[in-house]
Each structure stands twice: as C-alpha cells, then as structure tokens.
Design brief:
Oxoglu/Fe-dep_dioxygenase_dom, oxidoreductase, Jelly Rolls, alpha+beta, elongated
Length: 243
C-alpha cells in the first residue's frame, strides 16, 4: 500500500500533523440561514412564545420552568435544523454522515446571566458535539467563548456585532468536550435552544470522514517501529462509553 503524502514517513510527527490538518473544525457558527425566523416555541400552559422575549414573558417562563415542557411547533424548523446539521457535518469531520439533533434544553438568560468555563457531559449515546441555536433575541453581552488548550479559540456573538441578533436566528457548534463559557448578559434577554448532535444509533463507533488515509497511515507507521515505544496525548476528552 502506498500513500501520496510523504509526510507520513516522518514518524510520528508526519502522521500526527496530517491527522490534525484533516480534523474537523473545533467550533463554528454564524447566521442560521436554513432556519425560519421563528421556531414556534410552545410551552405547556403558556402557549406560543413570541420573539424577541420581553420581561413579562420571561417572568411567566421562569414561573413554569420546573413544570412546563417546551417544544418547537413550526414544521419548517425541524427541516431547517436537519439541513443546518447536514451542511455543517463535513466541517465537523463527518461528511456524508446523517448526524442527528436532539433538543436538550431551552435556556433564558437575563441581566447577569452567565456560566463559567466548563465542559459538557455526554448527554446522549453517540454524542459528538453541542449545537446552540439563538432565535431572535435583544440583549447585550452573552457571548459564547470556546477555549482550546487554555486559550480562546472562538467567540460567538450571535449577530450582535452586525445588528442581526434581534431579527434572525444564529448558531454555534462546538465539540462536546470543548471548554466553553458564557459571558454575562448586561442587558435584555438571551434565548438559547441547546441540542446534542449525535451519530445515528448504528454508527456510534464510526470514525470520522471514511475517505481519510490517516488510520491506514498510522497502522503502517506503527508496524515499521523497531523496539520503540511512544505516548500520544489525545486532544479530546473521551468518556469510557465513547471509547
């Protein structure tokens, strides 16, 4: 078996470098142009929620937060969500794989609302990433910050900087184990719908893009080692279930 990229011969750094170049993007985001403006968010005993949120609605939502379930009732929302996931799958390193989105929770952040740097837990079997969709919201602050190796990798403002946050839905995706934080909301209300992005049940142990030559290259490189040992530190934090 031959490989066109000669960097794999420089063990181990060539293979590692090749793998890093072919890895999916750590985080991405922007305007969710496949989604309708309004998800048709419906909360039991409250009805359909209008957007952007106003204080009176937020008070009612808080009062029902422990008892009322929420769901989107706009039939075009789920179709748009599937399309959004399909388009971004290749950028995550899963081109051609029918990734699935499962709604985890709906969050409302008011003035002072934030969370400190942390990692998400694996909420679903086969979960690979977290998708945050922000429907039209009027607020200041509340940026989602993604960290890598202790440094800021991405900062998602969900359309605040270009003035579209109140009029269009925006999204951010990050790997499930990525460290992230939410900066304090200084004014207004931020609505967020959080989804788990998962592999289909039959593909929970699927590797990334099957067109990669990296696994084969790694196998060849290891077979050529002579009485050598090495340690390869992984950049992701895997759960026992995922491994």
């Amino acid at each position: 078996m031959t490989f066109p990229d000669l960097r794999i011969r420089k063990w181990p750094f060539g293979v590692i470098g090749l793998a890093d170049e072919n890895a999916g993007e750590y985080s991405l985001g922007g305007q969710a142009d496949t989604l309708p403006v309004d998800p048709g968010l419906f909360v039991d005993s409250l009805g359909t929620i209008s957007l952007p949120l106003v204080e009176e609605q937020v008070k009612k939502l808080i009062a029902k937060s422990s008892t009322g379930s929420s769901r989107d009732k706009n039939p075009f929302w789920e179709k748009g969500l599937d399309k959004l996931t399909e388009i971004r799958a290749s950028r995550l390193g899963y081109k051609g794989i029918p990734l699935q989105c499962k709604l985890y929770k709906v969050l409302v952040y008011g003035e002072g609302g934030h969370f400190r740097i942390h990692r998400d837990t694996e909420k679903e079997d086969g979960m690979i990433a977290t998708l945050v969709v922000q429907p039209p919201s009027t607020h200041e602050g509340g940026d989602l910050v993604i960290y890598r190796y202790g440094e800021v990798e991405h900062r998602h403002d969900f359309g605040k900087d270009d003035g579209t946050a109140a009029h269009l839905p925006h999204f951010a995706v990050h790997y499930a184990d990525a460290e992230h934080s939410l900066k304090k909301v200084s004014k207004g209300f931020r609505l967020a719908m959080v989804y788990s992005i998962c592999l289909p049940a039959a593909m929970h142990h699927l590797r990334k893009d099957p067109t990669w030559t990296v696994p084969d290259a790694l196998s060849v490189a290891i077979s050529q080692m002579e009485n050598e040992s090495f340690a390869l530190f992984l950049s992701h934090h895997y759960t026992k279930k995922s491994i």
